[in-house]
Design goal:
By secondary structure, the chain is mainly alpha-helical. It is built from 4 helices and 3 strands. Strands 1-3-2 form a 3-stranded antiparallel beta sheet.
Length: about 80
């Protein structure tokens, strides 16, 4: 498995949340434990990258979309990680 840093995980959560996802869907698709998902989602909501609707679905905000767009332009985020 490839080691991921926090930035990789945040970008992956944002990408998966574009259409709106529940916490359990994100946990499964991103590969996070419950406690990890809880921490990441809380921080991302607090920072304004995600919002939660009345059905408990997480969706990307405008700020989150801008962040993803800027990261896609950075060569570090396109760097291919080697499998160990």
């Amino acid at each position: 498995m490839v080691n991921r840093d926090r930035h990789d995980i945040v970008i992956e959560i944002l990408k998966k949340s574009v259409s709106g996802k529940k916490k359990t869907e994100l946990m499964s698709e991103v590969g996070l434990s419950y406690s990890q998902a809880k921490q990441y989602l809380k921080k991302m909501v607090d920072e304004g990258f995600l919002e939660q609707d009345d059905k408990k679905r997480y969706a990307v905000t405008k700020k989150g979309m801008i962040f993803m767009e800027r990261c896609s332009k950075c060569w570090l985020f396109r760097w291919e990680k080697q499998k160990r």
